[in-house]
Predict the 3D structure of the following.
Amino acid sequence: MNEYLIPANSKKSQLYFGLFKGIDLMILGAGVVIEIPMLILLNGNSILILFLKFLPIFITIVLLIPIAYYHNVRVVIKEIYLYFKYKLEHNEGYYWRGWCASYDTDEESKNWL
């Protein structure tokens, strides 16, 4: 029998600092790079100016905040998109296979996102 247990932290070990993929670090870096000039260039203390100053870092934090069963909100948005895309294209149920699913054939793996 080819059954084996997958350690609970095996997925986390594939992430940087146990939280981020490479694209997540690029999003974080872009948010910081955009934030610094906005703090310097935008003068004023009104609520609107403060909101605009902190908008890039706020969007970055919302996208990268960790949530249960996914490593961040960006992954949840991606899964929701894939779910509705598959549902519209195939008019049938969406069967989530998980990240450690094995397929019997290459053709079967192509049919499952």
Remarks:
- The two ends are 27 Å apart (CA to CA).
